Input
Amino acid sequence: MQDLIERAARDLAGTRRAVALTGAGISIESGIPPFRGPGGLWEKIDPMEVAHIDAFRRDPRKVWDLLIKGMQTVLAAAVPNPAHRGLATLERLGRLQAVITQNVDGLHQQAGSQDVIEFHGTFAWQRCMTCERRCRSDELDLTEIPPRCECGGIFRPDCVFFGELIPPEHLVRAQQLAAECRVMLVVGTSATVHPAAMLPHLARGAGARVIEINPEPTPLTGTVSDYLIPGPAGPVVDALADAVAALQADSGGQA
Ligand code: NAD
Ligand code: ZN
Output
């Protein structure tokens, strides 16, 4: 695996146009479980029952009780891990232009990444479904579920539910970054949720090198990605950031 990390470091050190696409897997080592896979939430509840906007409109209390309250508790306790910090380091080194994340946990920003596209929005903020007023999630009064705005409207997390569109400014910027990058790091995503899953295809189609970091192969492996570094994000991205810093130091910062 060390060979692959060094190969990825050389790929990154050869460009200033790299981006990362991240998913739930990068935050598992921070204590946030993924929804998919064995033991995941989607084995117990149908996502269409709790994560679709129609389900929320039909029964906001149920979605707050079964999904949102639990997520808020888990997210409040989570802190960035070495993978989030490694990507922030790669940005500081001038190698990574931006992180496009499907996560709603805010951990990339907490780790120090400056340019983060929250493709699926964020759980850090709530917005009133009637007057659009926004409120920080940690300042929300949860004595009544669903929580309500002063105007009487219902608060919802400022994220993208199934059945909703990606905010156009995020979609356009992510597509542009994917189409123009020379290297795309795809970290901790099963690449099955669209339209995020098409970003690596777009990058590859435009000639970029696509590098996956994931303990398991994904539908991209062996087709869209050039290679997979098969391991958990924390130690791999940490080692990758160190290796890029070392290459840069060796070449007097000119790599
Ligand atoms: P996913 O659950 O479909 O896939 C997770 C991937 O992470 C898998 O491929 C798995 O093999 C991999 N993985 C497991 N352990 C890992 C590790 N230690 N390091 C690196 N990778 C690891 O996730 P997805 O593709 O992001 O799609 C899920 C959707 O659910 C996303 O839209 C996301 O917004 C949402 N979600 C977000 C969070 C969060 O904000 N942290 C948590 C759960 C779900
Ligand atoms: Zn309101």
User: Anything to note?
Assistant: DSSP finds ten helices and nine strands in the chain. Residues 60-77 form the longest helix (18 residues). The mean pLDDT is 95. Residues 128, 130-131, 133, 149, 151, 153 surround zinc ion (ligand 2) (CB under 6 Å).
